[in-house]
Amino acid sequence: MIRKSQRQRRRQSSRPRETFLSNVVGEFIDPIDALLTVFYSIFFALLFTLSYSVLIYRGVISSSFAGGYGQDLFVTILGAATAWGIIEGVLYVMSEVLTRRERHRLLQYVQTSDSDEEADLAIANELDFILEPITNDEQRHALHRHIRAYLSQAQPQAVGLKREDVTGAAATVLLYVVAVLPSLLPLLLLPHDTRLAIHISSVVSFLVIFATGWVWGIHTGTNPWKTGFLLSSVCLAMVLVAKLLGG
User: pTM for the complete prediction?
Assistant: First the structure.
């Protein structure tokens, strides 16, 4: 009885919480795709702002740059983020279409396999990377058999471009732009003190990254503080690596 109540408490405590990622963003794109979109958008902003901070500090850029170039930098970063968002949107559409074609291939393979074992192996190759962390061998084999039974009677669906693909691509572009705007606002609000605006922008960028990690931690049921600091640390490390390699 005690063990039963302990299992119930564990199940209740580990139940995923509804967040902005699942309720709003999840309606258009996968939450993990949204997380990476925000990460890369802020990463672009940090590449610009931290680079200019270093160049101003070392005197490579004249001190006269510290006044009046904030708006130009705002347009440059926003344009770069938007351009990369469009690229990601196109890749999103391609990925969705090609993924459906891959699933269609799995369906054809299962329905034309010479034996149930071959069909189960094909299903395992496609799905076990998802199933292994949450099931044991016996459960996975049972799932393979059930999936095979359904797929053997399934009818192939359309694999071409869908409206959801275009919607997801548009959401990706929009998220790229919206995510970077808080980091760019100091460049507009302090147009005559670009150096200070750049410093504030960099701080805001890391705060946005931390907040994104915090929300992801809540979304996945992990420690939000650790996730926020981890994401911020990884972003800083990637910026440093990019700069060391000449990025």
Answer: 0.69
